[in-house]
Amino acid sequence: MVRLRASTLDSPSSFVITMRVCARVCRNFSGFFVSDCGGIDDAAHEAFRPASEVALKAVRAGTDMECTDDWPGDYARHLPAAVVSGALDEHVIDTALSRVLRVLMELGELDAEVPWRRLGPEVVGSKEHVELARLAAEESIVLLQNNATALACMWHDDRTAGQLSDGKDRSRGDGEPCIKPVLPLPTDRQLKVAIVGPMGKATVDLLGEIDYVVPASPQVQGRSLVDVFQSDSAVTRVTYSEGCSLRDNCNDTSAIPDAVDAVRDADVVVFVVGLLSCDRAGRRASECESEGHDRSGVGLPGSTGQLVEAVSAAAPQAARIALLVHGGALAIEPLIANCHAVLDAHHPGEVGALAVVDALFGRLNPSARLPYTVYPVDFTTHSRPSMTDVRLRGGPSTDSLPPSDGVTYWYYRGSPLFAFGHGLSYTTFTFAWAADANSSQVDAVRKVTVTNVAGPPGSTVVLGFVSASHLPMFPLLRLFDFARTPVVSPGESVAVPLQTSWRSFALTDASGATDITPGRFELATGDPGPEMARVGVDLR
Predict the structure, then answer these.
(1) Which of 254, 392, 410, 460 has a CB 3.0–4.6 Å from the CB of 475, allowing a cystine?
(2) Phi–psi pair at 391, nearest 5 degrees
(3) What is the pLDDT at residue 156?
(4) What is the DSSP letter of 207?
(5) Among 275, 244, 409, which Cα is nearest to 345's?
C-alpha cells in the first residue's frame, strides 16, 4: 500500500526509486501498488492541488490502483481524459492494469468458481484458529502493576514472594508483617468477585475496531469477563455494575452509587475500563478511538476516575484490580493510585476474556511488554501542549511553539507512567550480558543470560537497547532486537541471542546520509530503568 503525501508530489523521485527499483528490481516484485483509501484526494487537499494533477503524478510514479472512499474515484474521473489529451501515455494505464489483472488471475478471482468464497465459519472459527487467537491474547497481556498488600497473605499459607511493581522482593521472615503481591489470585478459595466498569460485559468490543472484524459465529463465540468469571471454579459469586457508559464518554455519574453497592462485601473488585471504537460508541462519544478520529487527551474518559475512586473507597477490604481494554495508550493515574494490580489486555480478541482470567488466577504467567510509552495525563497540556509541534526531540519554546519534553521512548525526557518495554511477571528474572557481548564487530550476536531467581516457571521478552552518549542526536534508547524466552523453571537460566547490525549504531544526518560515528556505544537489557544490565561497545 502506498501512502501519498503532499511533500512527494513536487519531488516524486523517492517514490519512484522505492517502488520501481527497491521493490520491482531488488525484490523482483511483480504485484501491484495500491494507494491508501482516499489517499489521492487527501494528497490533493494537503498540497492544494487539483485531484486530476495528483492522480496523474501518482500513476506515473507507479501507483497502479487507487483505493477510494468516493466511487468511482479520482483515477476513473481524471485519467481517461488525460490519455485522450495526450498528457498520459496509454501504455502507463496498460501496465498498471496488467499488474492488477495478473494478481486477480493468480488468486482465482476471475474463475467461475472462486474457492476462497466458500470458506465458512467452520474454517474461520476452526479449533486451530481459536487456539491461535488465545495464544495471541495470552502473549499480549501486560502486567503493569502488582503491588504488595497484606490482603494477599490471608489467601495463602506460604510467603513465597513474587515480583512487585518496582521489581523488588518484599517478602517477610517469620515474626514480621506479611505483605505479598496481590496477584495471582488463589484458586483454592471461593471468592466473591465484583466486576465494575463499562467493558465488563464486552464481547465484540474485545475485538477492536469493528470495521475490521468478522461477526461472531457459532464457531467463534466471544465471551465477556463476567461470563468467564461466572463459570470459574474458584469463584462463588459474581456481581456486575456498569458504573458509567462509554457511549456518553462516561460523563453520566448517576450509576456510580449502584457500583458502590455492588462491591460492599466483595473479596475481589475488577475494574474493566478503556475505550470503545467510535463506530460502537455512537455520535455522543468523543473520547473514543477510530481511524480518522483524534482524542482530545490521553486520560481515561469522563468520570472513569471518579468511579474508580468511589468504588475503591467503598471496598477497602477487597483486592482491587484494573483491566484495560483499548487500542491507543491511556494515562491511568486513578488506577495506579487506587488499585493493587493493573493489567493491560489491549484488544485481546474473541477468547481474550479466558486469557485474562487465567492470568488473574496464575494459570497464565504474564510475559508481554508495552509496545509504547504511557505518558502522564498532562502530556497534552504540559509536556507537549501543541498538537502542531512535530519536534520529536522536543525543545525550548519558540515564537510559535511552547516548550516540549519530546515524544516516543527515543526522545521523551519527562517521567512516563510506564516506560516503553515495561512488563511485570509473577516470576523474578535477572538479565546479564555474556562475556563477549562487548564485541567491536558491528554485525554480531550478543547473548543475554536470563535466570529465573524466584517465583513460578515463566517466560519473558528480552529487549536489547543501544545508546550513544557521545552523539547528541542519537536516541536516548533505541531497540535493536528482541526475543521471547522459552518457559524458564525456577533456578534455571537460558541464553538468548540478540543481533546487532550496521543500522543498530548508524545515525542519519540532516542531509539524509546514514553512517556510524566511531565512539563508545552502550547496550542495555532487562526491565527498562536504571537497573538494566549494560555493556560498552567501542566502534572505531
Answers:
(1) 410
(2) -75, 105
(3) 58
(4) S
(5) 275
**Cα 188 from chain centre:** 34
- Characterize 131-158 residue by residue with b for buried, 16 or more Cβ atoms within 10 angstroms of its Cβ, and e for exposed: eebbeebbebbbbbbbbbbebbbebeee
Write out the H or E segment, with its range, that includes residue 391. Answer: none
Which grid cell sits at 189? 478459595
Domain 127-360 CATH (choose: 3.40.50.1700, 2.60.120.10, 3.90.180.10, 3.30.420.40): 3.40.50.1700
End-to-end CA distance of the chain: 40
CATH class of 427-539: mainly beta
Q: How far apart are CA 258 and CA 245, in angstroms?
A: 13
Q: Which residues of 403-432 are buried (b: 16+ CB within 10 A; e: fewer)?
A: ebbbbebbbbebebbbbbbbbbbbbbbebb
pLDDT at 390: 76
Distance CA 77, CA 80 (A): 7
The answer to whether the 127-360 and 427-539 domains have the same CATH topology is no
Copy the grid coordinates of residue 148.
Answer: 504488595
Q: Which residues of the chain are under the pLDDT cut of 70?
A: 1-20, 154-177, 209-221, 283-285, 387
110, three cell numbers: 476471475
3-state secondary structure of 101: helix
Q: Sign of the C-alpha dihedral, residues 184, 189, 194, 195?
A: positive
Q: pLDDT, tens digit, for every residue of 204-219?
A: 888 876 655 555 555 4
CB 394 within 8 A of CB 404: yes
Q: Is 420 helix (H, G, I), strand (E, B) or coil?
A: coil
Spatial CA neighbour of 488 closest among 496, 497, 480: 496
Nearest residue to 504 via CA among 470, 540, 537, 531 = 537
Q: Where are the domains of the chain?
A: 6-107, 127-360, 375-406, 427-539
Query: Which among 343, 364, 324 has a CA at the least distance from the CA of 134?
Result: 364
SS (H, E, C) 122-164: HHHCCHHHHHHHHHHHHCCCEEEEECEEHHHHHCCCCCCCCCC
- Tell me the pLDDT tens digit for each residue of 286-328: 778 887 788 888 999 999 999 999 999 999 989 999 999 999 8
pLDDT of residue 237: 95
Cell of 327: 487500542
Q: What span, in angstroms and rounded, lies between the C-alpha atoms of 295 and 288?
A: 7
- Rounded Cα gap, residues 18 and 16, in angstroms: 6
Integer CA distances (angstroms), 46 to 8, 34, 70, 320, 412, in order:
11, 19, 17, 48, 29
